[in-house]
Amino acid sequence: MTPRKPVDTGDPDRLYTVTGGRSRADESFDLVTLIVSESAPTPGMQSEHARILELCEHPVAVVEIAAELGLPVTVVRILLGDLLDTGHITARHPRAAASVASLPDSALLQEVLHGLRNL
Amino acid sequence: MDSATSELPTHRTPLRDTAETGLKIVVVGGFGVGKTTLVRSVSEIRPLNTEEVMTQAGVGVDETEGVSAKTTTTVAFDFGRISLNDRMVLYLFGAPGQERFWFLWDRLFSGTLGAVVLVDTRRMDDSWYAIDRLEHHRTPFVVAVNRFDDDGVRHSLDEIRQALALPEHVPMVDCDARVRASGKDVLITLVNHLHDLATAKEATL
Fold first, then answer.
1. What domains are defined for chain A?
2. What residues 64-103 of chain A have any CB closer than 8 A to a CB of chain B?
């Protein structure tokens, strides 16, 4: 098992560089929004953008991208915003993320139950 | 033995290309109660760790002279994953239950299906804050009592319900967070509860 290390590299400068100094993340990306690459990395692309495109050849949740890249979720949201704006990725947003208090419908929960029982 | 030590892939396991809906369940509880153990026992991937950087206005935060009213806090959390079918993927988040992490909760709980409060009977005090916040957020939850081997005094679920001042409608379940079948049972208890709530609500529409 790989030893667990803090994700934060302890280097705020690195995070600043990665995001070009931006700190406002695109809040539309939920932790479990699934990201899919729509194109291969292009030469000269920022390395973090390129890594996300390689990673998301198959669907990957935002939170998994953050863990894989070793970057805070907020930083990943900013990077994903860039890629979405340029058409390099598509995002499959969760259905149930609209509000906290609203319950998902019973049909969806039935599917979840079925999936869990089959584990 | 069907336990958390079962082999999980060390390499990244991609989701199916048909995956389209991510779902969330949060596991909350005090330090050392077994949140990550529970996540690991049911997850199809080795639990991953990531962090969220929260920038917040300095409400209720110590404001020292010359420091701007904004503070940045970093908090780490674990998560695992269960592919439910071709389209649906369930993510399990282990979140620390202490009061100072309330801002992480707001983020994690947004759009979550429901929560599991994992309780250690030797440290039940750790659970009160979590239960209070869940009720405040109107997030449906169940209470799972993690039975440790050295839990000499076995309190009954009724005794624990009383100690936590837990309403009758909140389901409780015993578990051994290390055992996959037990972890799965906890999740099924929660989703059954959610299903009952949804069915009751739909009947009134």
1. 12-117 (1.10.10.10)
2. 64, 66-68, 72-75, 92, 94-101, 103
